[in-house]
Task: inverse folding
């Protein structure tokens, strides 16, 4: 009888050890989703981003610590925003790629913008042209606003310094689309 209780006790302990990490992971996931939802609300309701030429020109004068936040064209979509944040994690080791397309450090935007006019070699240009043809927006953004120049500069830097392919640039642009909307 004692042996049976010992076996039952061992099974219960083992079951708790297996279930407990899942419960903790669930809490971590829930906290992460709550934080992402809060950030989404902040960016969606209080963004400063705009497609205007005046906004594009103002980026060069933004001070240290300034952020470019929110969508520039349409309302943000939480499902799409979550997908973008998750998808961009695969590029976390490349500091030039903003991890959140709706919350960008203004100084990073200034640096990336400075690469827009960088000439590319013939093979590099093929990669850039591939991304222009295959990205959802047929370029870094849907219009030639600040994102067009910042993410165009990012592409040139990634192609030159990190040997990104056209497909990789397409992926970065599609995940970084900051126009708003579900797609």
Result:
């Amino acid at each position: 009888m004692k042996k049976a209780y010992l076996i039952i006790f061992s099974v219960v302990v083992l079951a708790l050890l297996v279930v407990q990490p899942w419960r903790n992971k669930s809490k971590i996931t829930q906290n992460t989703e709550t934080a992402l939802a809060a950030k989404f609300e902040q960016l969606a309701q209080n963004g400063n981003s705009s497609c205007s030429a005046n906004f594009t020109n103002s980026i060069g004068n933004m001070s240290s610590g300034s952020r470019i936040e929110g969508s520039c064209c349409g309302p943000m979509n939480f499902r799409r925003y979550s997908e973008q944040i998750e998808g961009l994690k695969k590029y976390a080791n490349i500091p030039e790629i903003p991890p959140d397309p709706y919350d960008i450090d203004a100084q990073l935007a200034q640096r990336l913008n400075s690469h827009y006019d960088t000439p590319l070699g013939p093979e590099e240009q093929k990669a850039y042209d591939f991304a222009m043809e295959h990205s959802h927006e047929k370029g870094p953004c849907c219009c030639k606003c600040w994102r067009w120049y910042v993410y165009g500069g990012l592409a040139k830097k990634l192609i030159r310094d990190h040997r990104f392919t056209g497909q990789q640039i397409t992926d970065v642009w599609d995940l970084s689309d900051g126009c708003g909307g579900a797609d």
Q: What stands out?
A: The helical segments are 2-46, 53-58, 78-88, 106-113, 122-134, 146-162, 166-175. The CA atoms of residues 134 and 170 lie 6 Å apart. The beta strands are 67-69, 103-105. The chain has seven helices and two strands.
